[in-house]
From TrEMBL:
Gene3D superfamilies: 3.40.190.290, Winged helix-like DNA-binding domain superfamily/Winged helix DNA-binding domain (1.10.10.10)
PROSITE patterns named in the record: HTH_LYSR
Gene Ontology MF term list: DNA binding; DNA-binding transcription factor activity
Protein name: LysR family transcriptional regulator
Xref: PANTHER family: HTH-TYPE TRANSCRIPTIONAL ACTIVATOR TTDR-RELATED, HTH-TYPE TRANSCRIPTIONAL REGULATOR
Positions of the HTH lysR-type domain: 1-59
Record organism: Ramlibacter ginsenosidimutans
Cleavable signal peptide: none
Source lineage: Bacteria, Pseudomonadati, Pseudomonadota, Betaproteobacteria, Burkholderiales
Superkingdom classification of source: Bacteria
Length: 312
C-alpha cells in the first residue's frame, strides 16, 4: 500500500464530500479511490468513514485522524517544496574538488566571473593532488585526463589542449632561442616529476607534419612534483619548462613567457570533470559547470590562438 497516497486520497474524499468528486479531482477512477480508502482503514484497523447512499460522514476515529493528517501533509508538501527549490534556485553551496594547477589557472578565474552572475551561490573549493579522488563526496571534481576515476563516475571532457615548451625572455636572451629540436640539447630544463615514475626523454610532436616525433635527452636542472612551482621557476628564468596551453596562454599573451620551438608540442591533454550523477543535479551546480566549460573553452581558443600566432 502507498500509505502517503492513501492519506492524500482520504483527505480529498472528505474535502470534496464524496468518492466520485475526489476521483475526478485526483484523476483516479472511483474504484481506485474506494480501494485506497479501504487499504488505509485495513492498515489502521478502524473505520474512518461512514458511507450511506445519501451522505458521507467521518467516524470519531476518522475525525481525529484527519486533524493530525492535515498537519502531516502540509509538512510533507513544505519539505518537498524546499528540496525542489534547492534544485531550481540559484542559491546554496557547490562543493568542488580540484587539482592545484587547475584550481589556480582554470577554476579561480571562472569562479570570479560566475559569482558576478550568481552572487548567492557559494563555492566550497577543496584543492589537493589527486590519485584516486572520492567523486561521491563532491558535486564536481576537476582533473586532467591522467587521473584515474571510479567506474561509476560520470565523466565529461571540458577542454582538449596540448603541452608546449616555454621560457622567460631573460632566459632566452642569455641562452639563445632554439630553432630546431636538436638546438634544445645544451639547454637547461625544468620538468615535472611524477611520483614513482622515471624521467624519460622529452618527446616532441610536430602536428603540422603528421605528428612526427623526435625524442630529446633533456636532463633537468630542476624537477618537482608541483606544476606551479615549475611555472614560477620558468618565469624566473631557471630554464625551459613544459606547460599546458590553457594554463600558460595568458602568461604568454602578457609576454612574461615565450613559446619555444613552435609548432612542436610535447603532448596532448584533456581537462575533465567527474560527477557522482547527472540525475537531480541542482541548478546551481549545473550552472557552475556550464560556466566553467564555456570560460575554459573560450580561454583555450582565444588565448591559445594568441599564443600560437603572436608568441611563436
Amino acid at each position: 500500500m502507498d500509505r502517503l497516497q492513501s492519506m492524500r486520497v482520504f483527505q480529498q474524499v472528505v474535502d470534496e464530500g464524496g468518492f466520485a468528486a475526489a476521483a475526478r479531482k485526483l484523476d483516479l477512477t472511483p474504484a481506485a479511490v474506494t480501494r485506497l480508502i479501504g487499504d488505509l482503514e485495513n492498515h489502521l484497523g478502524v473505520r474512518l468513514l461512514q458511507r450511506t447512499t445519501r451522505r458521507l460522514a467521518l467516524t470519531p476515529a476518522g475525525d481525529a485522524y484527519l486533524a493530525r493528517l492535515r498537519h502531516i501533509l502540509v509538512d510533507i508538501d513544505e519539505a518537498d517544496a524546499l528540496a525542489q527549490a534547492q534544485s531550481r534556485e540559484m542559491t546554496g553551496t557547490v562543493r568542488v574538488l580540484s587539482q592545484p594547477a587547475l584550481s589556480v589557472h582554470v577554476l579561480a578565474p571562472a569562479i570570479a566571473s560566475f559569482q558576478r552572475l550568481h552572487p548567492e551561490v557559494r563555492l566550497d573549493l577543496h584543492v589537493q593532488e589527486l590519485v584516486d579522488p572520492n567523486v561521491e563526496d563532491y558535486d564536481l571534481t576537476f582533473v586532467t585526463g591522467s587521473v584515474s576515476l571510479g567506474s561509476t563516475a560520470i565523466v565529461r571532457t571540458i577542454a582538449e589542449s596540448h603541452a608546449v615548451l616555454c621560457a622567460s625572455p631573460d632566459y632566452l636572451r642569455r641562452h639563445g632561442v632554439p630553432q630546431t629540436p636538436q638546438d634544445l640539447l645544451p639547454h637547461r630544463f625544468v620538468r615535472l616529476r611524477a611520483t614513482g615514475a622515471r624521467l624519460r626523454p622529452l618527446t616532441l610532436i610536430d602536428p603540422t607534419d603528421g605528428d612526427r616525433t623526435v625524442d630529446i635527452e633533456a636532463p633537468p636542472v630542476l624537477t618537482a612534483n608541483h606544476l606551479d612551482s615549475l611555472l614560477r621557476a620558468t618565469i624566473a628564468g631557471a630554464g625551459i619548462g613544459v606547460q599546458a596551453t590553457e594554463l600558460v596562454a595568458p602568461i604568454l599573451k602578457a609576454g612574461v613567457l615565450q613559446r619555444v620551438l613552435a609548432p612542436w608540442i610535447t603532448g596532448r591533454l584533456q581537462l575533465t570533470v567527474a560527477m557522482p550523477s547527472r540525475k537531480y543535479m541542482p541548478t546551481r551546480t549545473r550552472a557552475f559547470l556550464e560556466h566553467v566549460v564555456e570560460h575554459t573553452r573560450r580561454t583555450v581558443a582565444d588565448l591559445g590562438a594568441a599564443a600560437e600566432e603572436g608568441m611563436a
